Every structure is written in structure tokens, then in C-alpha cells.
Amino acid sequence: QVQLVESGGGLVQAGGSLRLSCAASGSISSRNAMGWYRQAPGKQRELVAFITSGGSTNYVDSVKGRFTISRDNAKNTVYLQMNSLKPEDTADYYCTRAASDYELRYGMKYWGKGTLVTVSS
């Protein structure tokens, strides 16, 4: 079992920045992928960004150039730096962890409880 605890959400004005953090604990494998999903009211959950244990990253088109995902393997922590935030970024953001990026996107993964990001216009 893996536990994921997110922090860093909140209310910010459009154009502002926030940094989300997610600390993993429990049965940690050195080979894994971690990422962030988000779900806005009335919309489907979408994968915003992920990063593999080797450092490869991937972003949904709507956040490219604005969001940066990074990780500290020694701390089993993943971060999501969000800049130039827009009202449409408002959502619950969920940290996830899986054995691979494929599993993160399509298969079995662990989920955090989520943290709310609200961007006001």
C-alpha cells in the first residue's frame, strides 16, 4: 500500500502561482511514475502532468509552458509548480502514483485525497 498526501492548494487570482506537493509513504518502489490529475465541476478527470522515476515528463496541452512537474526521489515527493494560472485551472487536484507511466494513465494507481485549487478572475 502507498499513501499519498497532497498540500499547497488554495485561492489565487488569475495570473498568480501555486505549488502543489505530494508526499508518498508506504510500500515504495524505486521504479514508478507520479503525476497529477484534476477534476473541475461537471467535467471529467484529466491527467495534467506526470513524471517517471527517470525524470521524463509529460503535460496536457492546456498547461504546457505554465506548469512544471518535478520530483525529489530521496523524499518520495512530487511537485507541481503552476504559473500564469487561469480560472479554467480551477479544480480538485489529485496526486497519483503507479508502477509506470502506462499504469498511471490507464491502469492501477494510488490516489491522494485531493487538494482544491481555485483561480479567481
Explained architecture:
The chain has 121 residues and is mostly beta strands. It is 5% helix and 53% strand. Strands 2, 4, 5, 6, 9, 10 and 11 form a 7-stranded mixed β-sheet that branches. It has a 4-stranded antiparallel β-sheet with strand order 1-3-8-7, with no helix packed on it. Strand 5 and strand 6 form a beta hairpin. It is globular. The N and C termini lie far apart (40 Å). The mean pLDDT is 94.
Radius of gyration based on Cα positions: 13 Å
Largest sheet: 7 strands, mixed
Give the number of DSSP strands. 11
- Backbone structural class: mainly beta
What is the share of helical residues?
Answer: under 10%
Principal-axis shape: globular
Low-pLDDT segments? none
Q: N-to-C SSE series?
A: EEEEEEEEEHEE
Q: In percent, how much strand structure appears in the residues?
A: over 45%
Mean pLDDT, all residues = 94
What is the straight-line distance between the termini? 40 Å
Treating each run of at least 4 consecutive H or I residues as one helix, how many helices? Answer: 1
Characteristics:
121 residues; 1 helix; globular; 7-stranded mixed β-sheet
